[in-house]
Design goal:
Blueprint lengths: L4 H11 L3 H11 L5 H8 L3 H15 L4 H11 L7
Helix pairs in contact: 1-5, 2-4, 2-5, 3-4
C-alpha cells in the first residue's frame, strides 16, 4: 500500500508511532505480515522487527498484526470506525 506523506503523518500522530514503527504498520496495511519480508524491506533484522512490533502492540493495545493493519487504515481514514 502506498501512503501519501499526509497519511504517513496522520498514521504516526494518531497512533503515536515513531517513524520506523509507522513503516512497519504501513507494510502490514499493505498485506505484508511476514517478519522476514518486513526485515528485508526495511533493511533491519527480524529480531528488530519483533521488538518494534512489541512496542507498537503496547502503544496501541493491539493483539495481532491484522488488528494493527486495521488500526492503521482507520487512523488514516481509509476504513470507517467500527
Amino acid at each position: 500500500m502506498i501512503l501519501t506523506e499526509q497519511e504517513r503523518i496522520l498514521l504516526r500522530g494518531r497512533l503515536n508511532l515513531s517513524k520506523r514503527q509507522a513503516q512497519i504498520v504501513e507494510l502490514l496495511m499493505g498485506g505484508i505480515d511476514d517478519t522476514n519480508e518486513i526485515a528485508t524491506r526495511l533493511n533491519i533484522s527480524p529480531h528488530t522487527v519483533k521488538l518494534y512490533l512489541a512496542m507498537v502492540y503496547d502503544k496501541t493495545n493491539a493483539r495481532s498484526r491484522l488488528q494493527l493493519a486495521l488500526l492503521g487504515l482507520r487512523g488514516i481514514g481509509r476504513l470507517p470506525d467500527a
